[in-house]
Automatic annotation (TrEMBL):
<keyword id="KW-0863">Zinc-finger</keyword>
<feature type="domain" description="B box-type">
    <location>
        <begin position="24"/>
        <end position="59"/>
    </location>
</feature>
<keyword id="KW-0862">Zinc</keyword>
<dbReference type="InterPro" id="IPR000315">
    <property type="entry name" value="Znf_B-box"/>
</dbReference>
<dbReference type="Pfam" id="PF00643">
    <property type="entry name" value="zf-B_box"/>
</dbReference>
<feature type="domain" description="B box-type">
    <location>
        <begin position="78"/>
        <end position="112"/>
    </location>
</feature>
<protein>
    <recommendedName>
        <fullName>B box-type domain-containing protein</fullName>
    </recommendedName>
</protein>
<keyword id="KW-0479">Metal-binding</keyword>
<dbReference type="GO" id="GO:0008270">
    <property type="term" value="F:zinc ion binding"/>
</dbReference>
């Protein structure tokens, strides 16, 4: 799975950027993403989007007005997939008896 974003909270920035520009992030620059390219599956800031548009004008892109079409950030995905009881485990199984997602530890201990 591609990495879509990185939280700036980890780098102790004064501001929180929900989606970082993918090319800028490769150069350790936290820059606010203005556009998501569905073809490249990357985010672009105002400066990088100009070059992207020149090179890949036919790519399908979505701006900030269409964030519902952007993928969930990696931090959100990780949070949603993490087991509440076993923080080092991801939810990988489904218990039909309890209609509940569970990690392998929970499945073994509580969902036989």
């Amino acid at each position: 799975m591609a990495t879509f974003s990185q939280s700036t909270m980890e780098t102790c920035s004064d501001s929180i950027i929900d989606f970082c520009c993918s090319p800028c992030l490769e150069h350790n620059i936290d820059q606010w993403a203005e556009l998501y390219c569905d073809t490249c599956q990357k985010f672009y800031c105002a400066e990088c989007v100009t070059l992207h548009g020149q090179l890949f004008g036919k790519h399908v892109t979505y701006g900030r007005g269409d964030t519902s079409k952007w993928p969930a950030s990696k931090e959100v995905q990780d949070f949603l997939l993490k087991c509440d009881l076993h923080e080092d485990k991801h939810l990988e199984m489904y218990c039909n008896d309890h209609s509940q997602l569970c990690c392998t530890n929970c499945a073994f201990l509580d969902h036989r």
